[in-house]
Amino acid sequence: MPDLYLSISDQPDAVLEAIANSMDDRARDPEMQEICASYMGRLPGPGATILEIGCGNGASTAMLVDAASPGQLTCVDPAEGLLDRARRRFAGQDSIRFAPGDAVNTGQPDSAFDVVVAHTVYSHLSDPRAALAESFRVLKPGGTLAVFDGDYATNTVALFEGDPLQAAMTATLRNLIHDPYIMRKLPRMMVEAGFDAPRTAAHGFVQTQQPDYILSLMARGVTAATKAGECGVELSTAFEAEAARRVADGSFYGAILFASAIAVKPA
Prior knowledge:
There is one protein chain. Helix 2 packs across helix 3, helix 6 crosses helix 8 and helix 8 runs antiparallel to helix 9. It contains nine helices and seven strands, in the order ααβαβαββαβααβααβ. The chain has a seven-stranded mixed β-sheet with strand order 3-2-1-4-5-7-6, with helices on both faces. The protein has 267 residues and is of the alpha/beta class. 42% of the residues lie in helices and 21% in strands. The relative contact order is 0.15.
């Protein structure tokens, strides 16, 4: 089954609600908040004009506002249902506006932004080179592109070799992530798109006692695997039950390596 984010604008509201809840779970995690403060805090500002690509329900937008203090913030997403949630979150904040658009077609003018941010977007793209070209187009000379995403090939919930619960994570990657290796390829792609060589950083993310995000990620993954006919409801339910058992007895471990790549468009 292909990554459902490739057709995010066509997903029913129940799916969008699950995605929005998972975005909130991730954004609430203190470790993720530290990670985002670290990489977003290296962006130009305060007062910069920023474009956020793939803003979703605004969970990442809130962290961007806190860390970068933009002067004007434009946020685009292809899913109107997620944009509606983001608009409600930031109702009355005139310096933040939301509009339909995606990484390849932002709908924004040439050379309009000091900064473009793509937070957990590139792993879901079928054409990352076109997305880089679009970011290059809308950035001012000397502007900054920041891409943050998972090196999702590293995802693990295994406690031992051959741990059957890891199959749930594998199904999650197969059904929810288009390219789990994108952050390994991106530095070269950025240079080929005309950017200066990016500054890269690794950001380890581990959840044990309160693994709300990784549990929600896996739950969506095994649900998608069931819909794709890869397994039956009984097996997907058993995966979720085993994860819950490990949380209850304190043995759950889930880890994702995230990475950031920040590049400058030559002046």
